[in-house]
Amino acid sequence: MRRILPVAVLTFMLFTFSSFDVSAIERLEPSKSDLYFGEVLCLPDQENDHLSGDCMPLGPSSYKSRMANVGITFPLRPFSGKKPAPSLTYLDIGYGEVVTQNAPVYNSLEAAAKHNKKAILRKIDSPYSFISYTEEVYVDGKRFYMVEYGGYMTANDVSRIGAPSNFQGITFTTTPERQFGWILFPTQTKHTPNFDIDDYTGREVKRYEIVQIFDIAQIDDMNWYMIAPDEWIPEKYEYQRRIGRVIPNTTPPEGVENGRWIEVNLEQQTIAVYQNHELIFVTLIASGLEPFWTRPGLFQIYEKHETTPMRGSFEADRSDAYYLEDVPWTMYFDNARAIHGAYWHNKFGAVLSHGCVNLSVGDSHWVFDWAEAGDWVYVWDPSGKTPTDPAAYGDGGA
Fold this sequence. Notes:
mainly beta; six-stranded mixed sheet; 4 domains; elongated; SH3 type barrels; nine-stranded mixed sheet
């Protein structure tokens, strides 16, 4: 015998059922059927009863059905992805930013302590430079660094990097069912996908927080994403993208026939790793900043290095020159463009590089351990804004 409930006790139900969002029910706009009286109401755990006409699918039942249509069931299921081992973020090398133009590197600790100009091995003359060091020592209370590539530098010329970003992506055993993404800037959620209505929920999602995307609405050329029951965030706000979105796609790019590939999405600033036609890892990146775009196309990893130096410049006056020591977990795939760890910044999810695909140290370590020479790297821009003409590209860089 079917269980039915008179409309007269709806108020009692709203306070006794805990498996649905009461505040969301109160926000439902009434439909024509909501105006009927004297009918019986379907229980929230019997959404299909209305098919027989024995009850009305209103209130809690209607809300649960509406949420089910966008893949939300109660209680909410946890996200299936997991972070890789934290140990992948560890580096046994110290790093520092060179803060003095033409900073000298001396051939001995004694020469560095005395600032002996005759004992200078070389000078670091790039405006954007980072050194690696294996030891720090003190002489008369002053600190010096033994530089990885030989020689000593004074602490006056180097600002130590305490620790690289510990941001890490997500691993999967099976491809997730829906889209998801990382929040790029702290963002207030709204009850409706509309800037014109002041209905903020009071909840702020934090930077690098991962969220599932249950529904998408386009309002005035703006995409809005439902990241929780009746909680929406905009794709952009004040010209800033608010989310780095992942769209799982297990269909390999044309030309990939072995079921292994790395997808670089320039629009969303994400990288995804596929194996046996399943998504197994995804994270945020920082790709090439105009006019040093990361070139779209299908490439293969041709060289791997646990650490390697990088240097270069594109402007005639070398105003953009960079010098980077011991860049970790580097995988070259397109001339001088590589997937590698970036210990010098924490701006993943935004364009920043000279053409390389920057990952956090831990994420580059994970990809490096997985990748093999010859693996495919598919770079694309769904927005179509990145040039595809080969004439727009040089060799690229960090």
